[in-house]
Amino acid sequence: MLATLHALDAPHALHLALQGTLERVELRLKAERRSRSIRRYRYELSELVEIARAITQERNIDRLLHLI
């Protein structure tokens, strides 16, 4: 009887193990996407800060347009 229980539990245990593995893979993919989004956001923010500094410091319109 005990052998029958183990035989029935093995497919269920395998299913749970595979399901857990797939969930971890999905979480890693989501984390990588978020990380890429954050890097892109930081890059764009630094570009905006640079433009803002140029606008506040430059008085010559032609040079200002060149900086932007």
Furnish the topology, listing elements before pairings:
Blueprint (H helix, E strand, L loop, with lengths): L1 H56 L3 H7 L1
Short key terms for the protein model shown above:
68 residues; mainly alpha
Report on the structure:
Helices cover 93% and strands 0% of the residues. The chain has helices at residues 2-57, 61-67. The termini are far apart. The mean pLDDT is 86.
Total of domains: 1
What is the arithmetic mean of pLDDT? 86
Alpha carbon gap, first and last residue = 78 Å
**What fraction of residues sit in β-strands?**
under 5%
Structural class: mainly alpha
Care to count the β-strands? 0
Q: Could you tell me the radius of gyration in angstroms?
A: 28 Å
Q: Encode the helix/strand succession as letters.
A: HH
Tally of DSSP helical segments: 2
Low-confidence stretches: none
Principal-axes shape call: rod-shaped
Specify the helix fraction band: over 70%
Largest sheet: none
Quick overview:
With 68 residues, the protein is an all-alpha fold. It has helices spanning 2-57, 61-67.
